[in-house]
Amino acid sequence: MSEGISKQLVLPKGSGFGVKNGALDKDAFRKVVTVLAAKVAPEKAGVLLKAPALKRSLIDVPKVKSVARGPDQDKLVLLKYSDQADLIEDAVQFLRSQAAELVPHELVFDYDYWSADDVIHAILPEELEEGAPSGFAVVGHIAHMNLRPEYLPYKHIIGQVVLDKNPSVRTVVNKLDNIVDQFRVFKMELLAGEPDFVVTQSENDCKFTFDFREVYWNSRLHHEHERLIEQFKTEDVIADVFAGVGPFAIPAAKKGCGVLANDLNPSSYKYLTVNISDNKVGSLVRPFCEDGREFIRQAFNRAWDDPLAPVPQRKQRRTELKEIRAGERPAPPVGPRRNRISHFVMNLPDTAILFLDAFRGVLSPAIAGERDLSGLYAEATMPMIHTHCFTRELEPEKAEADIRQRVEEKIGHPLGADTVYHWVRSVAPQKEMYCVSFRLPYAVAYAS
User: Fold this and answer.
1) Which residues bind S-adenosyl-L-methionine (predicted)?
2) 440 assigned binding-site residue
């Protein structure tokens, strides 16, 4: 017995199909397939669809509806065969009992029918087909690809396919090199779509606007952002050393935290201030644009000299506001301003560990001056430091040992037993990303 029309609905793989004069030829992907259809009165269509005798004969092609409109008021129940001889006898007898007339029906499968993978596997030559690119990251309306060199001759065709097959994508770009500058950005080229690189990205109930060419953003870190933010308490003050456009800072402020947020990249700082305003957390986040070491050294003094806003009050219900105005209920007391930093976030995995030496002596008179911060920062109340980093060690025990050795070398002190090493993601075949979280040692902070 025939398997139906499924075998006709495939594109040739690794054949350079659908490319004409170096461009995508969409007309080449058009296929017309004739199937059998059972023409019945509208009220009988449901009977045929539910009939056990037809269960193995109904059309089973993705994205094709089982019932089509026929001439006059009739319905066409589509079958998966082109030839009546392929129908089993039970199906034939059932159709006769229902006075169904078998008629031919044309199905048109054009370029829009095929998936991006179908098209890309067809257009590439045989030697490139097996490892054909299919994945990409989406940032706002931009699809960001990282094509290997052997696929670059087909980059614009691949970009066009990605654009065509993803309605939310308006711009497709390709990464040109590794992140090499101090601002963690890379060069990119436009493959297809609009040359519009300013995006709006939603994450953790916040909206972030930025120019993807000018700042660092990695959508794959969404869960890491969420993980750390869950550790922050509403009353905490957070110092974000490499804040970017605010993926840690702004959701933390939405939670009620006070935040000192810094980034050396002027473009990141620009969009950080935009996002602070757009997300209405201006009273809780203070942005800075300076070197990470200088920010670390000044953060404690800044929080002491100009404490951050109190924890936001719960929004009063209408009846409560009415009672307060009438003097029937006292207004809720305003909490104290906050001057103790609870957490430092250092999300610059390539070099963050190198900045840890800035914590040496950060609470000593040499930096704190005449401020007596010892009442705020005792052994048990020192801030937690969350440092993202890379390691070439693939085994967890070896990775932790490598990270510990590098951190202790920079701070000049052993890490405590409560230090946590959290695996974040695999970046490359021999490159893992971790976050090491430890309490700033008292002896380090007060070192002379």
Assistant:
1) 225, 263-264, 291-292, 347
2) no
Residue 20 lies in a domain: no
Q: How many CB atoms lie within 10 A of CB 180?
A: 11
Q: Which domain holds residue 136?
A: 116-201
Q: Do 196 and 219 lie in a common domain?
A: no
112 is in an annotated binding site: no
- In degrees and rounded to multiples of 5, residue 79 shows phi and psi of -110, 165
The model's pLDDT over 319-372, given as tens digits with 9 standing for 90+, comes to: 655 665 666 666 666 678 899 999 999 999 999 999 999 999 999 999 999 998
Q: Is 128 annotated as a binding-site member? A: no
Which CATH number do you get for residue 53?
3.30.70
pLDDT digits (tens, 9 = 90+) for 401-417: 999 999 999 999 999 98
Mean pLDDT (the chain, rounded): 90
Q: Is 347 annotated as a binding residue?
A: yes
Report whether 263 belongs to an annotated binding site.
Answer: yes
The CATH number given to whatever domain includes residue 249 is 3.40.50.150
Query: Which one-letter amino acid corresponds to residue 307?
Result: P
Query: Residue 405, Cα to own-chain centre: how many angstroms?
Result: 32
CB count within 10 Å of CB 260 equals 24
State yes or no: 225 annotated in a binding site: yes
- Please tell me whether residues 197 and 220 are part of one structural domain: no
- Residue 437's nearest CA partner among 232, 249, 200 is 232
